[in-house]
Design brief:
Elements: H1 4-16, H2 20-29, H3 31-37, E1 42-49, H4 54-70, E2 75-79, E3 82-87, H5 90-103, E4 112-120, H6 129-146, E5 151-155, H7 156-161, E6 169-172, E7 177-179
Length: about 180
Amino acid sequence: SSNFIPRLDHCMAKASEVSEDRMKILRELKLADQITAARDSISLLIMEFTADDQSVRTVALDLFAQQLEQDGIHFNIPAPDMVISTFNRPADALGQVRAFGAQQPDDCEMSVRGALYGGIRINEEAADLNRFLAHHLRVAQKLSGRAPAASILVNDSACQSLCSKEQVKIFDQSALIHVY
């Protein structure tokens, strides 16, 4: 058992470390600033572009990034096929997804998947804000990884904050995950 204690300490230290990449994403998204100013629940939108053809993925990602930039939305591109953005309201995030989908030709299925994750609220348990925010980003990324093609998974908190739940259906009843 004495052999396991140093390894356990190492694992615990590793688990508590916040990835520098995640910290950079959070700084660029100005998420902490938005939490202070937000009237509603802050939401993270992760869009993964999944077309088989790399050039199609790149063009779609660029178009979505241009749309966000034009609308003054903070976003980050942590990978060549992913955009992460923040919104004060989940409805605004789905509005961006709808607007992007409306730009796609009718005969072309949107090659995206993603997650809309809401309910990020600061509470007494969040002593270390950076670790707290990085945790929510990690959970949103895991949710995005579960999304079927051409869909956005929406956690229950984000779904409850939506003005219109049109086109949003239950995906996983036990985890209270919805799909758009």
